[in-house]
Amino acid sequence: MYRTHTCGELRLENQGNEVTLAGWVQRKRELGGMTFVDLRDRYGITQLVFDENSSDAITSQLKKLGREFVIQATGLVRERSSKNKNIATGEIEIDVKELKVLSPSVVPPFTIEDESDGGDDIRMKYRYLDLRRTPVRENLILRAQMAHAVRSYLNEQDFIETETPVLIKSTPEGARDFVVPSRMNEGEFYALPQSPQQFKQLLMVAGFDRYYQIVKCFRDEDLRADRQPEFTQIDCEMAFVEQEDVLSTFEGLTKYLFKAVKNVEITDFPRMPYSEAIANYGSDKPDTRFEMLIKDISEVVKGKDFKVFDDAEFIGAISAEGCANYTRKQLDALTNWVKRPQVGAKGLVYVKCNEDGSYKSSVDKFYSQEDLQQWASICNAKAGDLILVLSGDKSAMLYALGALRLEMGKQLGLMDKNTFKPLWVVDFPLLEWDEESQRHYAMHHPFTSPKAEDIHLLDSEPGNVRANAYDLVINGVEIGGGSVRIFDSELQAKMFSLLGFTKEEAEAQFGFLMNAFKYGAPPHAGIAFGFDRLVSLFAGLDSIRDVIAFPKNNAGRDVMIDSPSPIAIEQLDELSLKLNVKPQDN
RNA sequence: GGUGGCGUAGUUCAGUUGGUUAGAAUGCCGGCCUGUCACGCCGGAGGUCGCGAGUUCGAGUCUCGUCGUCACCGCCA
């Protein structure tokens, strides 16, 4: 036994007890004749006291102590003469009788404090030190609590937690696969799962009825603050259910998590068709914490000799509340912002709705006060508001207006991290057209069932077929998504042909699933939540890296262990691999 | 693949129009200090200005390239 108590639990009622604590030296304060040491572990901080009465042995040990030394101290708990109300153990201290250095520390490269002086780079390189810091540790504790809550909810609902293989088979659809060469099968590769999709459907065929798993998934695509090459899903599938059953079950899970983990009651849980999300928010993951909806003003702005609008496919606007007083400089900044290639607008037209009821716009030459009043009325803009107008190709401008809306929401402080607005986005298109390869791709995945009422459109206008697919969106973050699956092998074959697979290709890639469906497949549907995103949302963070113990950087590198890395030629030989790395030009 | 930001002491940053010996805070080391808790006071050490080329009498500063890192677009069924 290295300790009798943790550094977070001793109180005044322990006064007089002899205790042994072990932990890290947070800080040493020498005041000449006496010295204080803050001893830290994951539970808290306890103050150790040494004075002139301490033995020479202790004094010489004490002299050597530096930050992050691991020590063990034994002594009596006593009341402090001057108390610290800021920490839980602030009324007591340990009068140390024995001191042992268990493990010394070199000087750490940054301070191990709530507000560290270290930047991201160095904290990632020394992640094991960063994890000692309370805010980082608390994020991971939150993650553990949430995983626990997910399991208790789903177990309670009779879901069976089942593991599925990590070494599986590469499929052409979807994201790029991470692949693993097989030593025993020369020239052949496993793939790491992008999700356990086909296995969970097979578990439904197997009669498991309700499956879940908190599981790692892998996608070899470029990364973002909210995307890691390996990430964790709460993966679920249910048999003998319709879309509504899945939505209500996982609405239940979401509400349960908010209540159990954050003590937040979620009452409103709207559904929004995909088409409405795109039209009003310019996004399939609308942030509904604030309004500022996109309005189509194409009809009323055309025919006034303003060529830019007359030639545009679509003219859309949003109204930013209380921004009529924006200066020329602010408007120029916004204009530059929307003209960035990432947003892609050609320019920005504004209308200031002045407090006196008049309107001042950048296109006054073409539009009368009455015209502008009409715009304002469509945009629900009142005196003091600023209308921002973009024009151009419809889908591009909806996207740009959506981005501008979020930017304005951010500038106006409308995105409160403690407000949570979940919704289901439903009725996604089944397919999306890819210009480059001139074919349709499954928007969700190839096993997603079309809506029954749209099946007749599959041949005539496949692009307009809606799917029984749904996403859970909270505060503009895509938390999860799923679909009702096809369980009819004929319809599945039809889907494969729409996606441009020959019978043989479909057989080679997905034969095992299609075979399974021949043996009595129950109607089934499923969903997966991005667990990292959900935790970061709960923690009020923008990057999922902060809720992952050992994350990777933008380029998919782990800067702590320095991976990925080359392997020995012998390893390559054993795997029957030859490298073909292109030389750098220069 | 593309766009942009950043890279200066262990760390976080400042560094003017290109001009003498590159600064601050913090951390670190030494000294003093018996109630501190971001202890205080005094002193000290610490720099390949990411790397490479170029412009210039002269580059931390300007140009180009490159590497690293972050954010975004493409991509992510």
Automatic annotation (TrEMBL):
L-aspartate binds at E173, R219, H444, R485. GO terms for cellular component: cytoplasm. Its main location: cytoplasm. It is an enzyme of class 6 (ligase). InterPro entries: Aa-tRNA-synt_II, aa-tRNA-synth_II, aa-tRNA-synth_II/BPL/LPL, Asp-tRNA-ligase_1, Asp-tRNA-ligase_1_N, Asp/Asn-tRNA-synth_IIb, AspRS_core, GAD-like_sf. Keywords: Aminoacyl-tRNA synthetase, ATP-binding, Cytoplasm, Ligase, Nucleotide-binding, Protein biosynthesis. ATP binds at R219, D220, E221, Q228, E478, G530, F531, D532, R533. Gene3D superfamilies: Bira Bifunctional Protein, Domain 2, GAD-like domain, Nucleic acid-binding proteins. Residues 197-200 are annotated as: Aspartate. One of its GO terms (molecular function) is nucleic acid binding. Belongs to the class-II aminoacyl-tRNA synthetase family. Type 1 subfamily. HAMAP family: Asp_tRNA_synth_type1. Homodimer. Catalyzes the attachment of L-aspartate to tRNA(Asp) in a two-step reaction: L-aspartate is first activated by ATP to form Asp-AMP and then transferred to the acceptor end of tRNA(Asp). This is Aspartate--tRNA ligase. It comes from Sunxiuqinia elliptica.
